[in-house]
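To the wet lab folks,

You asked to see what we're planning to order before we commit. Fair enough. Below is the target structure as tokens, and below that is the sequence we designed to fit it. If anything looks off to you, flag it before the synthesis order goes out.
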């Protein structure tokens, strides 16, 4: 639950993507599969069913006009190409699980199979519309799913009306998030029923956490969707969609002990974006009593470090200026792919913290990854989220303080200010241990910006527990906060062992009080920056005014400033205007709980700015 939640849906923005050369499209032409259907019987019938509705209709209209001799010649020609094609062993070999020895993000295009001509590969390419809900992990999942579909010959559209396939990447952390998906599904099924008969049927799919948690209800009770794919089943999307073409529902929600998509290079949702997310691990082993993540995303497993660094390098080459390393418990990263590091000792926990599992020995740890990632491009900012407070060894804090391109910003999810509630949540620390860590972080990284998560109205929370959370907010004075009312989730320990006994109206009141106190204290914390110069990565025009630009400072706080000419401090001495991807110095003139405002001073670089601190 540590990841910051995005309260909006991120719909597809990228235009149609060009097909990768040599990719095997799973929908050969109807004319080619007709003899296949007759020759191979049941197997041919299965491939026949994988044709699009339009292609089958077209073939049925054309076949009677062909003469027997022409059909026989076509059959002989097809049989010859089929004989030169791959054997059953070829398909079985390709269907075996990929071996993650030395992951490769960029593959050489393969030659199409002999019986698939170029015309077949270009036929019936469906358009996919992707819509994302929830946290940054879901944004990254969307990019992974699209990379897989693109390689299978699909096109992408940002127009809902153009789509042949609509896929929703879903969140299951809170009931409100799920309800938004149910409402959206009912709207989409209404759209599906209005589909013209001359068009292929519209296919709707649910991906991600909600797919895993509510498969039965989605498929059988509501019958609103055609495919369901859990977070570890995105590689199976082309097959699931092929099954859906036959008119059947298809699902794969199996959780994996080793799937990290290490060999899949995500396709960025916004190709011109200045920042990107890089997933370094999946799943979580903490099993906090309120959290559904271990049950929807499975056990913790980390990507090989080599594949992560390669992806960061690719993003740097594309001009991305900021990378956020993602994971449910990002700072417990442990790469065991390198044999020589498998006997390494486990790092110690933060003082006063504990876990429900034994220390995991061996592997390259987060400090090493952070060190190597920051060396890829000195002009690229590195962030990470979401960490657990227990996993902050001194080497990580020291590295953040020393490296000019690792942001001086930490997300330290507290969840509650009451030690009694923290114990019920199985967080593994007390209020006192948490505050000791906060002080140690501030001593180690002067000027660090802090953010946190809080839950209002957890099981058994009293008014005194609530007041302790209010006092923690005042004492720490966070710059950024994510605050929510408790929503009980099935499968969690709280669901089985605790009572959701705080009335909804009390949860709402307490949440409003927490939000009010957070804003008050964040305004004070951000107000301390008035008069200072902040290094800002320009993202683009402000949403409220075309005459203003916006970006984020090192502490991940939004900064808005006029779009005016300024001095180019990178060496040319010219007068320039800021562009997305530029680093600029902004003098802060005012502050609120969420935004800083200021005036442009000059364009700069990360290294030049660090040298003048």
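Sequence we intend to order:
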């Amino acid at each position: 639950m540590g990841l910051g939640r995005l309260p909006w849906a991120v719909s597809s923005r990228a235009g149609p993507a060009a097909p990768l050369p040599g990719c095997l499209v799973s929908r050969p032409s109807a004319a080619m599969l007709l003899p296949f259907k007759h020759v191979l019987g049941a197997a041919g019938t299965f491939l026949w069913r994988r044709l699009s509705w339009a292609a089958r209709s077209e073939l049925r209209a054309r076949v009677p006009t062909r003469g027997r001799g022409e059909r026989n010649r076509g059959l002989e020609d097809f049989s010859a190409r089929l004989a030169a094609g791959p054997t059953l062993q070829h398909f079985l070999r390709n269907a075996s699980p990929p071996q993650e020895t030395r992951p490769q993000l960029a593959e050489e295009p393969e030659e199409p199979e002999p019986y698939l001509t170029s015309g077949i590969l270009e036929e019936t390419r469906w358009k996919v519309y992707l819509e994302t809900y929830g946290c940054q992990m879901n944004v990254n999942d969307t990019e992974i799913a699209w990379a897989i579909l693109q390689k299978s010959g699909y096109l992408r559209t940002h127009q809902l009306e153009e789509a042949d396939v609509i896929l929703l990447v879903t969140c299951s952390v809170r009931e409100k998030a799920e309800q938004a998906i149910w409402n959206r599904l009912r709207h989409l099924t209404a759209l599906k029923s209005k589909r013209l008969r001359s068009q292929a049927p519209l296919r709707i799919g649910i991906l991600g956490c909600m797919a895993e948690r509510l498969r039965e209800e989605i498929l059988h009770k509501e019958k609103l969707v055609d495919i369901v794919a859990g977070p570890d089943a995105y590689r199976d999307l082309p097959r699931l969609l092929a099954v859906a073409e036959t008119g059947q529902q298809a699902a794969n929600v199996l959780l994996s002990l080793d799937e990290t998509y290490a060999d899949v290079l995500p396709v960025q949702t916004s190709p011109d974006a200045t920042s990107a997310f890089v997933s370094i691990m999946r799943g979580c082993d903490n099993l906090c009593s309120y959290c559904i993540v271990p049950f929807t995303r499975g056990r913790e497993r980390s990507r090989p470090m080599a594949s992560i660094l390669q992806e960061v390098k690719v993003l740097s080459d594309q001009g991305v200026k900021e990378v956020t390393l993602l994971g449910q418990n990002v700072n417990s990263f442990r790469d065991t792919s390198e044999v020589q590091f498998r006997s390494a000792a486990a790092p110690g926990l933060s003082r006063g913290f504990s876990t429900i599992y034994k220390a995991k020995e061996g592997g390259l740890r987060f400090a090493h990854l952070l060190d190597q990632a920051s060396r890829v491009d000195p002009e690229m900012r590195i962030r990470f989220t979401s960490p657990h407070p227990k996993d902050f060894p001194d080497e990580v804090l020291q590295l953040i303080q020393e490296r000019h391109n690792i942001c001086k910003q930490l997300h330290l999810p507290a969840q509650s200010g009451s030690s009694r509630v923290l114990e019920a949540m199985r967080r593994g620390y007390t209020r006192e241990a948490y505050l000791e860590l906060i002080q140690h972080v501030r001593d180690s990284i002067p000027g660090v910006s802090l953010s946190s998560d809080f839950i209002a109205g957890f099981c058994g929370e009293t008014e005194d527990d609530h007041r302790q959370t209010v006092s923690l907010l005042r004492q720490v004075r966070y710059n950024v906060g994510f605050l929510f009312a408790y929503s009980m989730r099935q499968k969690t320990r709280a669901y089985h062992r605790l009572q959701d006994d705080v009335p909804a109206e009390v949860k709402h009141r307490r949440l409003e009080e927490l939000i009010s106190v957070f804003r008050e204290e964040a305004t004070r914390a951000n107000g301390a920056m008035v008069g200072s110069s902040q290094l800002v990565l320009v993202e683009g025009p402000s949403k409220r005014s075309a005459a203003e630009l916006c970006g984020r400072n090192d502490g991940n706080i939004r900064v808005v400033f006029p779009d005016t000419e300024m001095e180019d401090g990178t060496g040319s001495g010219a007068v320039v205007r800021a562009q997305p991807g530029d680093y600029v110095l902004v003098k802060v003139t005012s502050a609120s709980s969420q935004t800083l405002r200021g005036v442009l001073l000059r364009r700069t670089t990360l290294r030049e700015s660090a040298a003048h601190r």
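Structural context that might help your review: The chain has three domains: 127-252, 275-353+362-527, 532-612. The CA atoms of residues 538 and 551 lie 4 Å apart.

Thanks,
Computational group
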